[in-house]
Amino acid sequence: MAPTLRTPTERTCERCGRIEVWEEEAGTWRLAVDESGTPQTVGSPYCIHEWDINGTFVPFEGGALEA
């Protein structure tokens, strides 16, 4: 079985707490909003965002990749 590539759908800045979600129709990250349309954590406009990329997200499922 070939591995299936997964992509992240949400990310949070480790510095300011900004939460973004992937918007498939636009093909870009957007600020997350709740059910009423209110933005969740906006974060700092001066932040150089540091997204959680420490390796906990596993992009492949369904088997190990062969080298």
UniProtKB/TrEMBL annotation:
A UniProt-annotated Pfam family: HEWD
Top-level taxonomic group: Archaea
Ranges of residues in domain HEWD: 1-61
UniProt cross-references to InterPro entries, sorted A to Z: HEWD
Protein name in the entry: HEWD family protein
Species whose genome carries this gene: Halobellus litoreus
